[in-house]
Amino acid sequence: MKAKSSLKQIAPYQQGKQIQDIKRQYQIDRIVKLSSNENPYGYADTVRQFLASYEPAFDIYPDGHTAQLRKDLAYKIKVSESEIIFGSGSEEIVQMICRAYLFQGVNTVMATPTFPQYKHNAIIEGAKIKEIPTIEGHHDLNGMLEAIDQDTNVIWLCSPNNPTGTPITKQDFIAFMDTCPQHVLVVLDEAYYEYLDKTKDLHAMEQIQKYNNLIILRTFSKAYGLAGLRIGYGVANKQIINQLNVVRGPFNTTSIAQQIAQIALANEAFIEKTSQQNLKVKLDFQAFLDRIGWHYYTSETNFMLVSTPTSGTKVFDYLIQHGFIVRPGELLGIPNTIRFTLGLQDDMYRMQELLSLYQHQNS
Ligand SMILES: *Cc1c(COP(=O)(O)O)cnc(C)c1O
């Protein structure tokens, strides 16, 4: 049979090795997984308590409208209920955006390096991709604006950017939105919003009425510690949400994900604690990198992108033998770097020891 011709251009997502396989291969019993920016502190106690007495109704379809979570979320982020769409992770909303707005003959503009799912899904839909290199990890917003033409339908901003960790400033964001033509949908992916220093908040949620071409993506997978449940959301004006609802599957988030997200959302103390602990670990690790003289990108997230004296792949191979899984920059399009999640402090001390040793052996 004949598949879409665009499928020939790309390969299925290459999952990292599973923890069990690594344990067996290297004969180690504890693995520290720092490759997917999950929350090392787990999830809120209130979620655990809920699960202890949870009586699942797995025989019943979920509420496709996600009414209860929608109500709480709208109240919390101060938008109207009709301005929200939920997805099986925010990644599914990336898919919906591509399905609704991208097709052969149009183009889409994004940074490079950035979150790879924008490009992946845009290629599937047959759109032309315009990638604008980041400058020291920052989006080149002027370069991105210049790349826009009359066939540009979607532009992707990721702030803070994955994999560089760098945020867009509020001033630059507003200037960008004021200049960007109305016919271009601006996607602002804030997957790491909860980790952002509050003084650097773009306050983009307050801008969705002003900018009719803006959609903001957020997720419960990162700071909320719920990556395994698959739930995230998008916020935009009603017209965009209505169009995305046409392509959305009728029961695209599960009942359990909806219920747990609602409980997690209410627990602000957990998010506060997570971001404070993360900040402590980050500052300590940055001081360590300064001591050994390794360059790093300023990060407002729970991960760091660090330049390495050898290829990132070599550092990856070395660390995995000691039970640490990181992402080699070669897989992310930035050679001679590694990206790793900021884990528990004791694990990060251990990683510092390993990297010091590596620095000795390779300088
Ligand atoms: C992790 C991540 C997402 C997707 O997370 P979901 O689990 O699909 O909600 C989206 N964007 C960026 C930049 C991410 O790092």
Automatic annotation (TrEMBL):
Recorded catalytic reaction(s): these are:
L-histidinol phosphate + 2-oxoglutarate = 3-(imidazol-4-yl)-2-oxopropyl phosphate + L-glutamate
Question: Which CDD domains does the entry link to?
Answer: AAT_like
Q: Which GO terms describe its molecular function?
A: histidinol-phosphate transaminase activity; pyridoxal phosphate binding
Q: Which residues carry this modification: N6-(pyridoxal phosphate)lysine?
A: K222
Entries under SUPFAM superfamilies matching the protein: PLP-dependent transferases
Q: What is this protein called?
A: Histidinol-phosphate aminotransferase
One of the GO biological process terms: L-histidine biosynthetic process
Q: Which HAMAP family did the record assign?
A: HisC_aminotrans_2
Q: Which Pfam families match?
A: Aminotran_1_2 (PF00155)
Question: At the top level of its lineage, which domain of life is listed?
Answer: Bacteria
Q: Which InterPro entries match?
A: Aminotrans_II_pyridoxalP_BS (IPR001917), Aminotransferase_I/II_large (IPR004839), HisP_aminotrans (IPR005861), HistidinolP_aminotransfase (IPR050106), PyrdxlP-dep_Trfase (IPR015424), PyrdxlP-dep_Trfase_major (IPR015421), PyrdxlP-dep_Trfase_small (IPR015422)
Cofactors: pyridoxal 5'-phosphate
Tell me which EC number(s) this protein carries: 2.6.1.9
Q: Which proteins does it associate with, and in what oligomeric form? A: Homodimer.
Membership in a protein family: Belongs to the class-II pyridoxal-phosphate-dependent aminotransferase family. Histidinol-phosphate aminotransferase subfamily.
Q: Which UniProt keywords apply?
A: Amino-acid biosynthesis, Aminotransferase, Histidine biosynthesis, Pyridoxal phosphate, Transferase
Enzyme class comes to transferase
| Gene3D superfamilies documented for this protein | Aspartate Aminotransferase, domain 1, Type I PLP-dependent aspartate aminotransferase-like (Major domain)
Pathway as given in its UniProt record = Amino-acid biosynthesis; L-histidine biosynthesis; L-histidine from 5-phospho-alpha-D-ribose 1-diphosphate: step 7/9
Among PANTHER family, the record links this protein to: HISTIDINOL-PHOSPHATE AMINOTRANSFERASE (PTHR43643:SF3), HISTIDINOL-PHOSPHATE AMINOTRANSFERASE 2 (PTHR43643)
Location of the Aminotransferase class I/classII large domain: 31-349
